[in-house]
UniProtKB/TrEMBL annotation:
UniProt domain Phosphoribosyltransferase: residue ranges: 141-228
A matching Pfam family: Pribosyltran
The name this protein goes by in its record: ComF family protein
Coiled-coil intervals, chain numbering: none
Species per Swiss-Prot/TrEMBL record: Metabacillus bambusae
Length: 229
C-alpha cells in the first residue's frame, strides 16, 4: 500500500485481518497526523474552532442581515486549514489528483454519521463547478466527497458565475447576484438538503446555494465541508 500523499510505502503490521481485508488507510501515519481534525469548541453555525460555543462574529453578522438570516442551518467541517491540508488540497484540486479524495473517506463519512445523520436529510447536493473549471480539472471534488455518504444526491444547481467569492469584500459578497441557478425545482419543496463542498472559507458560496434552495421551497439547508478555513 502506497501513501497517496507522500507516495511512500505504508508499513502495516501483519495479521489475519490484514491478509483478508484491504487496508483502510490511504495515507501513512506521518502524513495523516499532519492533517488536524477539528476538535473542541466551535461556532455552532460554521464550525470555526474557537474558545467558546457562541456564534462567531462572522456568523453573527450573517444572521443580523435580514437577507441572510436563517438561510444556512449549520455547517460541519472535518479538518482545520493548516499547511499540511493546504498542500493536499492543492494537489487534489489544482494538480488533478482525484485519488487523494480517498485519504478523507473515513473521516468524512464518520462526521456524517456522528453529526449529520440525525438531521434527517433528504438529499445531498454537491456544489457544482463552472463548465470551464470542470473541463480543466476533469472532476468535481464536491461530487467525489458526496459519493462517500449514504444519501441520494440531487444535482439541481448549476454555476452561472465562476469568480471566487473569497476574493471579494464582504459587501461585494452580500450584494452580488446569486452565482447559482436551478436546473430542476420539482423535488425541492419541503425537503431537507445537505450541501457538500471541499472548503468553507467565507460562507458566501454555501449561503448563495442555500438561499436559492430556500427560496424554492426547501425546508432546511445544512452543509458538510471537508475543511474549515
Amino acid at each position: 500500500m502506497i501513501c497517496l500523499i507522500c507516495n511512500e510505502e505504508i508499513a502495516a503490521q501483519a495479521s489475519w485481518t490484514s491478509l483478508l481485508l484491504p487496508p483502510e488507510n490511504a495515507a501513512c501515519d506521518e502524513c495523516y497526523q499532519a492533517l488536524k481534525k477539528i476538535t473542541g469548541a466551535t461556532c455552532p453555525s460554521c464550525c470555526r474552532p474557537q474558545e467558546t460555543k457562541a456564534l462567531c462574529i462572522d456568523c453573527q453578522r450573517w444572521e443580523d442581515d435580514p437577507m441572510w438570516k436563517n438561510i444556512l442551518h449549520k455547517n460541519i467541517s472535518v479538518f482545520e486549514y493548516n499547511d499540511a491540508v493546504k498542500e493536499v488540497l492543492a494537489t487534489f484540486k489544482f494538480r488533478g489528483d482525484a485519488a487523494l479524495v480517498n485519504v478523507f473517506q473515513k473521516d468524512f463519512l464518520g462526521i456524517y454519521k456522528n453529526q449529520i445523520s440525525s438531521l434527517n436529510i433528504d438529499y445531498a447536493v454537491p456544489i457544482p463547478l463552472s463548465k470551464e473549471r470542470l473541463y480543466e480539472r476533469g472532476f468535481n471534488q464536491a461530487k467525489l466527497l458526496a459519493d462517500f455518504i449514504p444519501i441520494p444526491q440531487l444535482e439541481v444547481l448549476q454555476r452561472t458565475h465562476h469568480e471566487k467569492q473569497s476574493k471579494k469584500s464582504r459587501l461585494e459578497r452580500l450584494t452580488a447576484s446569486n452565482v447559482f441557478s436551478l436546473t430542476d425545482s420539482s423535488k425541492i419543496n419541503n425537503r431537507s438538503f445537505l450541501l457538500i463542498d471541499d472548503i468553507y472559507t467565507t460562507g458566501s458560496t454555501l449561503r448563495h446555494a442555500a438561499k436559492l434552495l430556500i427560496q424554492n421551497g426547501a425546508a432546511s439547508v445544512s452543509s458538510l465541508t471537508l475543511i474549515r478555513s
